[in-house]
Design brief:
Among the domains are: 201 residues, D-amino Acid Aminotransferase, Chain A, domain 1 (2-Layer Sandwich), CATH 3.30.470; 144 residues, Nucleic acid-binding proteins (OB fold (Dihydrolipoamide Acetyltransferase, E2P)), CATH 2.40.50.140. By secondary structure, it is an alpha+beta fold. It is built from 21 helices and 22 strands. Helix 6 packs antiparallel against helix 9. The strands form 4 sheets. Strands 12, 13, 14, 15, 16, 17, 18 and 22 form an 8-stranded mixed beta sheet that branches. Strands 3, 4, 5, 6, 7 and 8 form a 6-stranded mixed beta sheet that branches. Helix content is 40%, strand content 23%. Bound molecules: adenosine monophosphate (AMP).
């Protein structure tokens, strides 16, 4: 299939602001994409050339593209750089300057970009520029526009994974049920390329057969929250209490000698934790498995240390030195597959039994502490002990029949109960930063406050909840541009909903997540979270707790969760 055909659709999508129109246009196109190309097409729609877990990085910033565009357009680099400064969108610059016949196939674009991603070592930057230049020479303006945006990782379409899955369901039938099956399969196999190709080749039957594969991460199961601890007993009969360790979630995969570690965002973090790899190798029996746990920093006596400590282990350099300086213990709590048997459909206590049979404990790897009970007083006691032990709170997990591992889902099989909920009724929220306001006074020259949003799962978009200006340390403030500016967008991202009153000085594509506390949710005409009739929800007195590099935007607090909290508190 020709790249131009895809670009024409991308342009049509970019022009529409209606989610439904976007979905329909995508569906019409996907229905006629050949099975050999549909996987690549879906990746490109999402602005990527591989799934997140594959760790394929083009390593190209606008700065690298400028010489490639200049050479392809036979212009001076200075002129291109100047234009980019004015337009702020490298795609528009390329479209303005490049005008060939447009002879690229999707396959050629995809394969060349993969070759570029694999180009490393000395001289690689020049090599990458050359390859890009040769692609650009074959581009019509519209192709140049989307190719350049794809390369820098900012397609500006506003079509997320959920929209693409809906479009696939429309294109290949199955209606609502089809969408449900596709989402379920995507949660187990978070590779849109495999999902699309399987659907095109084998239909929904093929989709329903997609299972856990070692080496390919499964989307993490998530927990609901309640506003009163007694609600836990109303939701589940057999309560499996576990400590809620305050660390980094790790999904361990092993096949033969090969071990992978994936983060909650499904990044491959194997190299960050040689100590966990070693512990897995020596302490977990089995030829192949997928096991989940929480890596927590510990001191020399084995006491648990807060989240900030384990976050220092997120590094590419000095890994061995930091492994010695900040040792961790992996507390394992789930088993998704064992020696070729998928266990996600099995009940929690069956999965736990498998862990108990398989794991040999040491100070580096342990089973999560657990208590199985039916009584609320036990739960409360377990919570108090967990807090004293340095945990964030507890996870109350359903131990009754029907307690499968719900990949990628925030269901009622797991409920979290945290310190903050118990002590002062303040809630914590994981919000996505979608904009910033310039600082004044002491904060002049930097950002003074951030516009934060929650995730609307139904519409696959981000709705604003608050303006966040407190809780930052001086170091946080200094680091904000470095953290955020790479996601800057000159126009309002299409998947962000904001009222004119809250319009920020700078927009960001929704990528960076932080955890905040707030005093109260109120109705507000200036925020859009869960809005109806122009009145949204706003969080009063928000305060930054910490950045959550381990979460991606779609794992932020959802509008459904907000609504549930309001219902509990105020009615
Ligand atoms: P939250 O990030 O507040 O939504 O809470 C869910 C997170 O708690 C999971 O993603 C895990 O990283 C973490 N966690 C800590 N201890 C456990 C446990 N025993 N079971 C499941 N998740 C846990």
């Amino acid at each position: 299939m020709r790249f131009l055909e895809l670009c024409n659709v991308l342009q049509a999508i970019e022009k529409t602001s209606s989610q439904l129109a976007m979905q329909d246009a995508l569906a019409r196109f996907l229905a006629r994409a050949p099975a050999t190309d549909i996987g690549m097409v879906c990746h490109i729609i999402l602005g990527e050339i591989a799934s997140e877990f594959e760790d394929v990085n083009l390593g190209i910033a606008e700065k690298t593209l400028i010489p490639a565009i200049a050479h392809a357009a036979l212009t001076e680099e200075k002129a291109i750089a100047g234009m980019f400064k004015k337009k702020g969108d490298i795609g528009l610059v390329a479209a303005d300057r490049i005008d060939s016949k447009g002879s690229l196939s999707i396959r050629e674009v995809f394969d060349t970009l993969h070759t570029i991603a694999n180009t490393t070592g000395s001289g690689s930057q020049a090599e990458k520029t050359k390859k890009l230049e040769s692609l650009l020479r074959k581009c019509s303006p519209i192709e140049a526009r989307y190719l350049c945006r794809l390369v820098v990782g900012n397609l500006r379409l506003g079509a997320g994974t959920m929209t693409t899955l809906s479009a696939l369901a429309i294109a290949y039938g199955g209606g609502k049920d089809g969408k449900f099956d596709l989402e379920a399969a995507y949660n187990i196999c978070p590779d849109i390329g495999i999902i699309a190709e399987t659907l095109a080749r084998k239909g929904l039957k093929g989709i329903r057969n997609i299972g856990v594969v070692v080496g390919r991460p499964v989307r993490s199961m998530l927990a609901q929250r309640v506003s009163d601890i007694s609600e836990i007993t109303a939701r589940m009969k057999t309560i499996v209490c576990e400590e809620k360790y305050d660390g980094e979630r790790v999904q361990v995969h092993k096949r033969g000698e090969r071990i992978w570690l994936f983060s909650r965002r499904m990044e491959d973090i194997t190299n960050q934790y040689p100590d966990i790899v070693e512990a897995v190798r020596t302490q977990i029996r089995g030829k192949s498995f997928v096991i989940e746990g929480e890596a927590v920093a510990v001191d020399s006596k084995g006491n648990l240390l807060p989240f900030q400590h384990v976050m220092q282990r997120r590094r590419k350099h000095d890994v061995a030195a930091y492994a010695a300086k900040i040792p961790v213990c992996l507390f394992v709590f789930d088993c998704l597959s064992y020696n070729g048997n998928t266990l996600i459909g099995a009940d929690l206590l069956v999965r736990r039994k498998q862990l108990e049979k398989t794991v040999k404990e040491s100070s580096r790897l342990k089973l999560a502490k657990q208590l199985v009970t039916t009584g609320l007083s036990d739960v409360e006691e377990f919570f108090n002990v967990s807090i004293e032990h340095g945990s964030e709170g507890i996870m109350a997990k359903k131990g009754d029949p029907g307690s499968a591992y719900q990949a990628g889902t925030r269901g009622w099989n797991w409920i979290k109960w945290k310190r903050e909920y118990a002590h002062n009724l303040r809630d914590t929220f994981d919000v996505v930063i979608v904009g910033a306001y310039r600082g004044r006074g002491k904060r002049a020259g930097g950002y003074g406050a951030l516009l934060c949003a929650v995730y609307n799962e139904h519409e696959d978009r981000y709705e604003t909840l608050c303006k966040l200006g407190s809780g930052f340390t001086d170091a946080d403030l200094v680091a904000l541009p470095k953290r955020l500016d790479r996601y800057m967008s000159l126009i309002q991202p299409k998947n962000v909903v904001c009222t004119p009153a809250m319009k920020p000085d700078v927009w960001f594509s929704p990528k960076v997540v932080c955890e905040i506390v707030g005093a109260e949710l109120t109705n507000s005409p200036i925020h859009t979270a869960s809005a109806s009739d122009g009145i949204g929800l706003a969080l009063r007195f928000p305060r930054l707790m910490r950045f959550r590099n381990d979460k991606d935007a779609s794992q932020a607090t959802t509008t459904d969760e907000l609504r549930a909290m309001v219902k509990k508190r105020f009615h």
